[in-house]
Amino acid sequence: MPRAGDGWGTSMPSSRLAFALADLGPAVPAADDLAFASASDQARLIAEGEVSASELTDLFLQRIARFDPAFGSYVEVVPERALEQARAADDRTASGEPLGPLHGVPVSIKDLNFLEGVRTTRGTRGFADHVARYTDANVARLIDAGAIALGKTNVSELGSIGHTDTELLGRCATPWDPERNAGGSSGGAGAALAAGLCALAHGSDGAGSIRIPASVNGVVGLKPSRDRISNAPMFGESAFGLSTSGALTRTVADAALALDIMAGYEPGDPGHAPPPSRPWSDEVGVDPGRLRIGVTRQTPFSPEGLHPSSDVALAKTVALLEDLGHHVEEVELPVSDALPDLLLTLWSAGIAAQPFDPTTYEPVNQWLEEVGRTRSAGQYAAAQFQLQLMARRLVVATRYLDVVLHPTLTSPSRPNGHFDGWQGKDIFDDQTAFVGLTPLANLTGQPAISLPVHHDAEVGPIGVQFVGRPWDEATLFRLGQQLEAASPWHAGHPPACI
Predict the structure, then answer these.
(1) What is the distance between the alpha carbons of residues 457 and 310, in angstroms, rounded to a whole number?
(2) Does some domain include residue 265?
């Protein structure tokens, strides 16, 4: 399989980089500082002529070649294509044409999504040689905003679990600890961003697949509201309305910018989220006021409860919120014991509907496919109906709160190789315990954001999750920026990547 580092130019970025990076901090060498700068800062430097898109793209390609063999975040890199697009971006900069908000900024694209002319495997051997004939609408919006696609990032097979390790694409490690998995299903996206191998990482989230790797890799991960970002042209309701595309970013400001770019209706979409009253980027830095925040430590599907690192991260966040003047109260969410099996009915139906030979699947998907085939259409319809009622109860029960806070995950990510030799059902049960309450926001369609508020000396980054009211990404951005300013999380970088 094609891997990073197979023969592109080796010229170093210009010495102009050092000058351009004067305000980005002296902690690491200049080129590394640029690689870890926010996407917004990179776009600004390009627009101001302090660095070129070609220099920036070359820097990231070199870093992929140097560092990624240890992490496996990329599964397809397109250096010639990226450099050609960078040169075209530099021509536009020189011409004085209007520039997009991500003009010349290198990004990664998740391998569940299509990028025309580039191999898209969805992590499964039955699709190993597929080359996309079109670009997904939400990916195209990033490209149209000026972003340069460096390649495709690693995923769990068909995006079904929060652990990225397949026979086709290999395992993906977090750069904070190469012995631990980068999470999933956007594991490659989280690892690439954390390692300074892209400026912004495209992802998707059906049960936490953006927020899980955001927590594990120490970055920001926003799951937007249902119907906020289109799944066109192939899908309407992806994963029966549970899944949406989005982005992993270094900063809350970048998360808002990415949503401004990716959001929007496409003809034929089954739903259309109400547009914001103003750009989400305008919410960043706005005082959120005194918020009423509910916090829960519930772990109904995790027999061992919260890992100490998750508990510490939650306690640290509560203390910070109270210091900032917010009202925080304990809440008990109405979560039914039947929820995991009902979600399993939908999840397994999605795997059973795939047009691939199930004998080629990873063990967990072989088991899910079998479950999907044995449960009836009536069981599926009943599960969907019951889940909709549960979602309504959850939203009603928390509507007096501005946001709900809980750990993104019940524990750190599993070690690489953790599931070797496991049976499919055992893997799925373990992952159900691992993700905890994270799928609830997919069920209700509410926006949710994972913020990397804590770093554990032993297991690395630990995120917490804020769930907003329906359609209310604005409050998440206001609160998230306030927390980022009070406790900056993007100053440190994985030691193995500098």
Answers:
(1) 13
(2) yes
Largest CA distance in the chain: 65
Which residues lie across from 229 on neighbouring strands? 264
* Residue 7 placed within a domain: no
* Residues annotated catalytic, as ranges: 110, 185, 209
Question: Token digits for 194?
Answer: 């954390």
Could you tell me the pTM of the whole model? 0.94
Residue 407 lies in a domain: yes
Q: Can you read off the two tokens belonging to residue 330? A: 């304990």
Closest to 374 (Cα-Cα) out of 348, 335, 400 = 348
- Provide the domain limits for residue 292: 19-497
Structurally, the chain folds into a number of domains equal to 1
Are 41 and 53 within 8 A, CB to CB? no
Could you tell me if residue 309 is left (phi over 0), alpha (psi between -120 and 50 degrees) or otherwise beta? alpha
Q: Distance between CA atoms of 269 and 286, rounded to whole angstroms?
A: 32
Query: Which distant-in-sequence residues (6+ apart) come within 8 Å of 182 by Cβ?
Result: 71, 73, 154, 164, 172, 173, 174, 188, 190, 191, 213, 216, 217, 413
d(CA 64, CA 66): 5
Closest CA to 171 of 414, 348, 357: 414
How far, in Å, CA of 279 to CA of 264, rounded? 12
| Each residue's pLDDT tens digit, 265-323 | 999 999 999 999 999 999 999 999 999 999 999 999 999 999 999 999 999 999 999 99
- 366, part of any domain: yes
8 A C-beta contact, residue 189 and residue 195: no
The per-residue pLDDT for range 125-180, each reduced to its tens digit, is 999 999 999 999 999 999 999 999 999 999 999 999 999 999 999 999 999 999 99
Residue with tokens 């023969």: 7
List the CATH number of the domain containing 457: 3.90.1300.10
Region of residue 163 (left: phi > 0; alpha: psi -120 to 50; beta: else): beta
Q: Do residues 220 and 259 lie in contact, with contact meaning Cβ atoms separated by under 8 Å?
A: no
